[in-house]
Amino acid sequence: MQLSRGARIALRLAAAVGFAVIYVPLLLVLVNSLNPDRSASWPPPGLTGHWWAVAWHNSGARGALWTSVRAGLGATAIALVLGTLIAFAVARHRFFGRGTVSFVVVLPIALPGIVTGIALNSAFSTVLEPLGVGLGLFTVVVGHATFCIVVVFNNVVARLRRTSGSYEEAAMDLGAHTFRAFADVTFPLVRSALFAGGLLAFALSFDEIVVTTFTAGPGVETLPIWIFDNMTRPQQAPVVNVVAAVLVLLSVVPIYLAQRLSADTASGSRV
Amino acid sequence: MRLTRSIRAAVAAALLLAATACGSSGGGGGSASTGLNPPDLKAPTKLGKPEGQVNLIAWAGYVEDGSNDPKVDWVSDFEKQTGCQVRSKVAASSDEMVKLMKTGEYDAVSASGDASLRLIASGDAAPVNTDLVPNYKDVFPDLKMQPWNSVKGTAYGIPHGRGANLLMYNTAKVKPAPTSWSAVFDGASAYKGHVTAYDSPIYIADAALYLKATKPELKIKDPYALDQKQFDAAVDLLKQQNKNVGEYWSDYLKEVSAFKSGDSVIGTTWQVIANLAASEGAKVKAFVPKEGSTGWSDTWMVSAKAKHPTCAYKWLDWIVSPKVNAQVAEYFGEAPANAKACEQTSDKSFCATYHAGDTAYWKRIAFWNTPIEQCLDGRTDVKCVPYAKWVQAWTEIKG
Amino acid sequence: MTATAPAPQADPAAGPRPPGAVRRLAGALHRRPRLRLSLLLAAPLLWLAVLYLGSLAVLFVSAFWTTNSFTSQVVKVWSTDNVRALFTTPVYREVIVRSVAVALAVTVLCAVIAFPLAFFTARVARPRWRPLLVVAILTPLWASYLVKVYAWRLILSEGGLADWMLRPFGLSGPGFGLPAAVLTLTYLWLPYMILPVHTALEQLPAGLLDASADLGARPGRTFRSVVLPLVLPSVAAGSVFTFSLSLGDYITVQIVGGKTQLIGNLVYSNIELNLPMAAALGLVPVVVIVLYLLAMRRTGALSSL
User: Which Pfam families does this UniProt record tie to the protein (chain A) (predicted)?
Assistant: First the structure.
C-alpha cells in the first residue's frame, strides 16, 4: 500500500509518541531509585546512590529472586511438556472435543488470577493437608504452570500448523520410526517455538503475583511478593525502588538471549 | 493496600472446618451470656525446657532477623540466648492472623484488638500466666488487663505497643487549623477530592466516635458496640464523606506520598506517617481532635495448641524486654509497651513524640476492639452489629 | 507421520533399550492413532480438567454455601442468597457494570493505540529495524507489573509527571480515580495487543495491497476493505488478553484508582470473612470472560492468539 508522505510522517510521529509513553515510566523507575527520599515524589529532591549500596546488602531480596527463578524454571519445564503434548494432539490429530481442548487451555490465563488463586488454594488445602503436606514452593510451581501452558501451546501449535506433517511422513518413508522422525525432523522444526514459548512462560511466572499470593506456603517469597510486602514499608521502599530498577535493566537479558539464540523468535513469538 | 499473603489458611479453614464449624465457635456464639464466655483454658504454671523452635505470626516489622536490613535484628540474639529458632510469618491483616492461628501451626501471634477477642472467644488463644513473663511488671499499667487483652480478669496476652489514629492536615492548604473530626465529616466538602481515610471496615468506628460527641441522641457509648440504628447513622455519615474522599489509604507510604504531593490534604494518620511526611518536607501536623480518637494496641498471644509453649513464653518476655521493645517500637513507629524501653531508644525524644507514658493522652483513645453481637458496652436489651456486617457495609460505603 | 512427546529418552541413540524394542513401540504407536492421541492428551487433560477445572467447580459450588457470622467459617447449608445478592444489591450491580466498562474501555484504547504503532513497526519502519522494534515493544513485559503500576502512581500524582508536562498547556493530569486506572491498565496490557496486530500486518502479502491500489482503491479504501478485515482476528486475539486481564485486576485499581472499587476488589475483600460471597462475586468475571472468549472464538481469534 502506497502511503502518502503525510501519512508516513503521521505514523512515524505516532510511533515516536507511543514508544516514548512505553518507556517514560521505566525511565522514571530508574530515576526514582536514585531519589534520596523514602517515599516517592516528583521531581526528586536530589540524586543519590545510597539506596543502591543499601540494597546490595539486602539478603531478603536476593533470596526472593532465587525463589522466583526456581519457581519460574519449574513452571516453565512443566508448561513445556504439557503445552507441547497438547499442541501435537491438536495440530496432528482430528478428534471429538478438539476445539474444547484449545479453549480450556486458554482459560487459566484468561480468568482472573484471584479466581484461579483461591480455587487452587482451596483445592490444595483440601487434598494436600490431610496428607500432611502444606503449601510450599511446589504449589506455586503447579499454579504457575497451569497458566503458562497456554503460551507454549500457542507457539508450538502455530509452528506445527505452518509446517505440515509431510516432512515427518517423508522421514518415515525413508525408514525412520516415529521417535527417530521426531528427534531428527520435528524437534528441530519446533525448537525455536519451544524456546519462545518457554521464555514467555518464564516471564509470566516471574512476574506473577496474584496466583502466587494464594498458593505460596509459609516462608516462600517470590520477588513480586517481596516487592509487594516491602514497598509499603518506609525502611524498605527505597530498596524496592532499586530492585525495581535492576529488574528493568535485567529485562534486557532475556530479550538479548532471544535475539542471539533464535533470530526469528522475537517476531515469531506469540503471547 | 494490603494483599494478603496467605489466604490458604483462610480457605483451608473454611473448607476443612466447614463440617465442624459450629463446634469451634466457642462462647462467642453463646446464648444469653453477658459478653464473652471463652472456653475454659488454663495458663501454664511453670515453663519446661525450651523446645528449640518457635513459630510466630506477626505484623511486618515486628520480627526482624536482619534479612531486610542487617542493622535491624533482634531475632538472632534471641536465638542465641534461648536456643529457640524463630520461624515467622508476616500477616497482612487481622483476619489472616485469625485464620493462621486456627491452623495450630503457630505458637504465638501479635494480634491487634480487632482480632484478639475472636481468638479468645474461639479458644485459639490460651490465657497467659504473666508471672512467667518477668518483663511484664514494667509494662505501662494502662495497657494491662484491657478489654482487648483480657476477659473477666484473666490476661490473654502481653502488650507490645500502641498508637492512635490521628487527624493529619496540610498546614498550607487547610485553614484555619482544624480542632475536630468534623473537618473530615461535616466540613469535608471544603477539601473535596483531597480527603483521605483508613481503608478498613474498622474505620466505621471513627465515624461512630464522632457521632458519639456530636449526636448525643444516638447514645453511643462505645464505638465498637453499635446497635443497628447507631450503625446506620455511622454508615450514612461515611457515605456522605465518601463524596469528598480522594482515596482511602492502608499502606503508609501511599499516604506519605499523597500528603507530600497534595493529593491528600486532610485525613486520619498514624504518628509514624506524620513524622515521615514531615521529615520529607511535607507541611503537615497531626493531633488528637477534641472528640478523641480511635487507636490500636497489639498483644502477643499464645496459641492454645502451641507445640513450643516454653519458647513462645521466652519470646513474649524477649519482645517486651526494655532494649528489644525500644528497638521494635522505633523501627515500626509506635509507642512501646515497656516503660523502661524509653531509656533504651536511640532517639531520646522518641517516647515523648509517641506519648509512650502519657496516661492522659491514651485516656482519650478508644482502642480497636472486635464488634460482636453481644454489645461490648454491656447492653443486653439490643443486639449489636457484628464485624461481618461492618465488612459488608464498608464495601457499600466505598460504592 | 507423527510424533510424540519431546522426551529425550525416546531417542533410540540415547536410550538404553535395544533399538528393536523402541522400533516395535514406535510401530505400535504408529498403527494405533487413538492410543497415540490418548498418550498425548492424558497428562495435560488430567492437569487442566481435573486439577484446574475441578478446583474451579468446587469453588463455585461453595458460592451456594453460607457463613457463620462470628467465626467466618463456611457452613454447608445450601442457599442462593449470595448469587441473588449479585443482582439485588445496588453496590454489586454498579461495580459489575463499572468493571465491564473498564475492561471494554481498556480494550478499545489498546486497539486504537496499537494499530498505528504496529503499522509503523510492521510496514513503515525499515525492515532492518523491525525485529529490534518488536523487542522494544516486548521489553516492558519483563519489567515487574508492580513496578510499572507504582511508576504510574508517580506520574499521575498531584504535581507529578503528568501535571508537570500538561501545565504549559494549562491542563492538569487526571489525578487518581477511574480514568487513571483505565490509563494504567491500558499501558500494562498494550504489548499484548501490539504483538498480534504487528504479526498480522507483517504477514499481510504486499501483493494484495498492490492489487487493491491497482484496482484504483485509495489508501483509505484499501485500509478499510483489505487491511482491516485481515487484521481484525488478531485484534480480537489481543483483546482476549486486554479484556480479561483488566476485568480481573484488583491491584492496579488499589494503587492508582483512588477510591474506585472493581469486581476484583470485592472478591478480594470477601475472601477471608465470607468465602461463599467471594466465590459468588468471582463467578461474575468468569461468566463474562467465558462468554467473551466464546464470542471471540467465532472470529477465529483463539487460533491466532
Answer: BPD_transp_1
- Domain CATH number, residue C103: 1.10.3720.10
Which portions of chain C are predicted below pLDDT 50?
1-15
Q: Which chains touch B (3 or more CB pairs under 8 A)?
A: A, C
Question: Residue B29 pLDDT > 50, yes or no?
Answer: no
Write the CATH number of the domain with boundaries A59-233+263-268: 1.10.3720.10
CA dihedral C11→C12→C17→C22, nearest 10 degrees, is 100
Tens of pLDDT, residues A203-241: 889 989 999 988 887 668 899 988 887 777 666 778 888
Model confidence, pTM: 0.82
| B67 CB within 8 Å of a chain A CB | yes
Q: Is residue C125 part of a domain?
A: yes
Q: Would residue C189 count as lying in a domain?
A: yes
**Exposure on the CB side of residue B390, measured as CA atoms within 13 A:** 29
Q: Assign residue B123 a region: left if phi > 0, alpha if psi is -120 to 50, beta otherwise?
A: left
Whole-number pLDDT of residue C272: 75
Burial of B295 (0-12, 13-18, 19+ CB in 10 A): buried
Q: What is the DSSP letter of B134?
A: G
Q: Say which CATH number the domain at B221 has.
A: 3.40.190.10
Residue B80 pLDDT greater than 60, yes or no:
yes
Q: Are residues B249 and B382 in the same domain?
A: yes
pLDDT tens-digit readout, C256-269? 988 899 999 999 88
Give how far B232 is from chain C: nearest CA, Å: 16
User: Into how many domains does chain B fold?
Assistant: 2
Q: Are both B195 and B336 inside the same structural domain?
A: no
ipTM of the complex: 0.85
Number of CB pairs, chain A paired with chain C, less than 8 A apart: 327
